[in-house]
């Protein structure tokens, strides 16, 4: 279980430009929850994921992963428990390293030092097995530099990298947004496959409301730093995009203003 209690995050605190990007976020995430996270422009979605990952320190509140308070831990320490992918395929993988080297770096992140050597002889098999699951034939191209792969292949590889060390939490920040529609569809299919086969606890930001409704077992909507909608699987089962937009308007008292969401 992952729990966030009373999380506040300010930018430019104490200045006339102060922004409260997260405003008293309270959230309990059950093991295996696949949450889709949606919201208006600047709602705080990315800030929330960065706060959980330790990219940003928070100004108030606590973050616990399986009962351990990680609020004060550095990003690289939390990375042992958290896999994370952003929009940019260039940032998720290292272009000049091979597929195998990228995977090796991701793999040792989750290991205790003493175990690293012991598993190295089995590594190639482990990497090939993990790559087979995504069905792109990358298991036969382990020595190929990642820079020669397409954006979709790189994000698919990033998914394998983010999950190979069996993280306690996977954070996806619009990881298909920079891809062409076909590649985005493929990466989404692979995402669902990896998340459901490993029952990975996942939060996925998307600007696509249909995607937010279709995937996962829970849908959360943010507005101005707060969680304003939290639907379980049953509540989102027969939901339509129009109903979701109407719900947003009635709760927030404003019109939904993210063009990318409405045009998706
Ligand atoms: N590093 C930063 N420095 C200053 N302000 C920031 C920073 N990061 C985010 N913000 C501000 O915090 C608020 C929340 O931003 P955030 O990126 O989390 O929103 P979001 O919901 O992910 O938005 P979008 O969907 O538009 O990407 C916004 O007002 C944003 O301008």
TrEMBL record:
The keyword S-adenosyl-L-methionine does not apply. Its main location: membrane. It is found in: Cell membrane. It comes from the Bacteria. It is a peripheral membrane protein. InterPro entries: AAA+_ATPase, ABC_transporter-like_ATP-bd, ABC_transporter-like_CS, ABC_transporter_ATP-bind, P-loop_NTPase. The keyword Membrane applies. Signal peptide: none annotated. One of its GO terms (molecular function) is ATP hydrolysis activity. Residues 2-249 form the ABC transporter domain. Keywords: ATP-binding, Cell membrane, Membrane, Nucleotide-binding, Transport. SMART domains: AAA. GO terms for cellular component: plasma membrane. PANTHER family: NITRATE ABC TRANSPORTER ATP-BINDING PROTEIN, TAURINE IMPORT ATP-BINDING PROTEIN-RELATED. This is Putative ABC transport system ATP-binding protein. It comes from Desulfotruncus arcticus DSM 17038.
